[in-house]
Specification:
This protein has a four-stranded antiparallel sheet, covered by helices on one side. Strand 1 and strand 2 form a beta hairpin. It contains three helices and four strands. The protein has 118 residues and is of the alpha+beta class. The radius of gyration is 15 Å and the shape is elongated. Helix 2 packs antiparallel against helix 3.
């Protein structure tokens, strides 16, 4: 999807943005599998300046709040970096309960072209 929309020879997507998108998607899906009772659905929607991603799972529990850059969730000895990474890299992070149970975590990931400065 990103390749088809942005990787034209004249205006390719910034590699850093594509890497961030892949990392956020990977973390959201892994968290749904590990903490959310399984993956209930996954959607991507290309928009003007990026991609909206929605991951649905079966758990009503929201991820723990993030305590700041580099912090680990209280009581975690291993792992615990995925959600803070999502919050740091994504924009417009939204968590909604689903009518039939579970939740949807939606994020916006900006995709800039190589001709647009940071």
């Amino acid at each position: 999807m990103v390749d088809a929309r942005w990787n034209h020879s004249a205006r390719p997507a910034r590699e850093e943005d594509v890497i961030d998108l892949l990392l956020v998607v990977s973390e959201l899906v892994a968290n749904a599998l590990r903490h959310g009772g399984g993956l209930a659905g996954f959607e991507t929607t290309p928009v003007r300046d990026g991609v909206r991603v929605a991951v649905h799972d079966y758990s009503d529990a929201a991820p723990a709040a993030v305590g700041g850059p580099g912090s680990r969730p209280a009581g975690h000895r291993v792992g615990g970096y995925g959600w803070p990474l999502v919050v740091r890299l994504a924009q417009d992070v939204d968590i909604e309960k689903r009518a039939g149970g579970g939740k949807t975590i939606s994020v916006f990931m900006p995709i800039r072209t190589t001709d647009r400065p940071l």
